[in-house]
Structures are given as structure tokens and as C-alpha cells.
Design goal:
Sig_transdc_resp-reg_receiver; Heat Shock Protein 90; 268 residues; Rossmann fold; five-stranded parallel beta sheet; elongated; single chain; alpha/beta; 23% strand; 9 strands; HATPase_dom
Length: 268
């Protein structure tokens, strides 16, 4: 979506944008290779900028720059997501003529038997609680991860503030500002103070509302041992990176009461 958004943003009125999806056979049984091509005849990019387009905060200086908003993290996030999915992203561009992005992903094919069963026995879509307006403190030291998580949480209607490490999170929660938050998403491995220590510090605050705020761990490690450490530190949930919207909702529904048991943490 970010590539398409950029194509729209950098293509003037009257320009054209073409989107093409191709399926090819994969050497791996049960898989297929998909190519997503997004081509526009917009402003294009210089050769120099193409070398840095996937860097964080990269934005080429052009005559239209003043009318473009954003952090410059969009393409870096896109590249990160494609890499995590084991895919590739290729760029061809010429300044003044336009750009072409090709994303290639190998995807597992859905089981036809399962599809047939699902179509013959339709299930009601699972409904989640509405988290619009919930105020979240996101504690994450990695700038790119912070940007991705912020966008995901905002897509759920949440309002997000950020802290760069555990020590900053404890300082915020110890102050008057801590009263505004409904939930904390806490990274584990951070400089100055890790997520476990920060959680233990927050749990000892004199203000019971702040001391008992729901805290969900975010970690690259999805082992059962890490989950147990999160519980021991006083956390209410544990989600593995890269974070998944459905897993977030499962944890939130459980914590805020839809699925009952707050002592059982959802496994990823």
C-alpha cells in the first residue's frame, strides 16, 4: 500500500499508474511466486537517490517537496516487511519519467479441501472490542520498529505516545502524564533499562491505577521461556515481532474482558 500511496503522491494530475499482479509456479510444492508491479509516470528519482530510497528518513529534494508530508520512513518500512516475508523488491526509475517497483513474494497456496469446507460452512466473522480512543504508551528503542508499531496501533484507532527506552517509560509513568494511558506495549531488549526491569518498576508505583496498567511485551523471541519471564516480570501479554494485528487484538480482547481469563497469555 505504501508503494501505491507514493505512486499517487508523486504522480501529477492527469498522470497514469499501472498495477499488475502475476502468478508463477514455484519450485516448492504447495507454493506459488507472485510479482506485484506498480508503475507510474510521475516525477521519478535521480540515480543518486535510488541508492538510498530504502534508507530511513530518505526523501529526495524536489520542487514538490513542500507539498509532501510524512517521516520519510515509508520505503524503509516497506523494504523491512518484504525482507521479513522472504521476498525481494526491485526499483527502476528515471527522473522526470516515472518509477516502477516490483515486489516478488513466494506464498503458500491455500488447501483446496479447506477452502471447499469453509465455503460450504461459512463462519461468522470474529468481532473484537472497539479500541478507538485508547491511549497507548509504546516503549521501543528501534526507530523503524517504533514507526511500524505506531502505524499498526493507530490503524486500530488508538492514540500513541512513544518512549525510547525503559527508563524513559518509568519516568513518564511516575509523573502526572502517566495517568492518561490505558495500556503499555513494552519492548524487552533496550538500552538504559530493559522491558522486564521497567515493568517491575512500574508495578511498584504508589498510584494503584498506574501500577496495575496492562503491559504487553513485544519481543523478537517467541520461546516459552521468554513468555514465562514476561509473566514473572508482571506483564499481561506477550507478542512476537514482527507484530501481527490479529495477535494484538487477541491480547487486547483477553485483557479488556471479552475472552475472560487474564491469567492466560495468548501464545503466538
Amino acid at each position: 500500500m505504501n508503494i501505491i500511496s507514493n505512486a499517487v503522491k508523486f504522480t501529477p494530475v492527469g498522470g497514469t499508474i499501472h498495477i499488475l499482479v502475476k502468478e508463477k509456479a514455484s519450485q516448492k510444492a504447495g507454493y506459488a511466486v507472485y510479482s506485484f508491479c506498480i508503475k507510474d509516470n510521475g516525477i521519478g528519482m535521480s540515480k543518486e537517490f535510488q541508492e538510498h530510497v530504502f534508507d530511513s528518513f530518505a526523501r529526495e529534494r524536489t520542487v514538490t517537496e513542500s507539498g509532501i508530508t510524512g517521516t520519510g520512513l515509508g520505503m524503509a518500512i516497506t523494504k523491512n516487511i518484504v525482507d521479513l516475508m522472504g521476498g525481494t523488491i526491485h526499483l527502476t526509475s528515471k527522473q522526470g519519467e516515472g518509477s516502477e517497483f516490483i515486489v516478488t513474494l513466494e506464498c503458500e497456496l491455500a488447501n483446496k479441501t479447506v477452502q471447499d469446507k469453509q465455503s460450504s460452512c461459512p463462519k461468522a466473522e470474529k468481532k473484537h472490542l472497539d479500541y478507538s480512543g485508547k491511549k497507548v504508551l509504546l516503549v521501543e528503542d528501534n526507530e523503524l520498529n517504533r514507526e511500524i508499531a505506531t502505524e499498526i496501533l493507530k490503524s486500530l484507532g488508538m492514540k500513541v505516545d512513544c518512549a525510547a527506552d525503559g527508563m524513559e517509560a518509568v519516568e513518564i509513568m511516575s509523573s502526572e502524564a502517566g495517568n492518561q494511558y490505558d495500556l503499555i506495549f513494552m519492548d524487552i531488549q533496550m538500552p538504559k533499562m530493559d522491558g522486564y526491569t521497567a515493568t517491575r518498576e512500574i508495578r511498584t508505583l504508589n498510584d494503584s491505577k498506574k501500577a496495575n496498567i496492562p503491559i504487553i511485551a513485544m519481543t523478537a523471541n517467541a520461546f516459552d521461556e521468554d513468555r514465562k519471564k514476561a509473566i514473572k516480570a508482571g506483564m499481561n501479554g506477550h507478542i512476537a515481532k514482527p507484530i501481527d494485528v490479529n495477535v494484538i487484538l487477541q491480547n487486547l480482547d483477553r485483557i479488556f474482558g471479552q475472552n475472560g481469563d487474564e491469567d492466560t497469555m495468548a501464545k503466538e
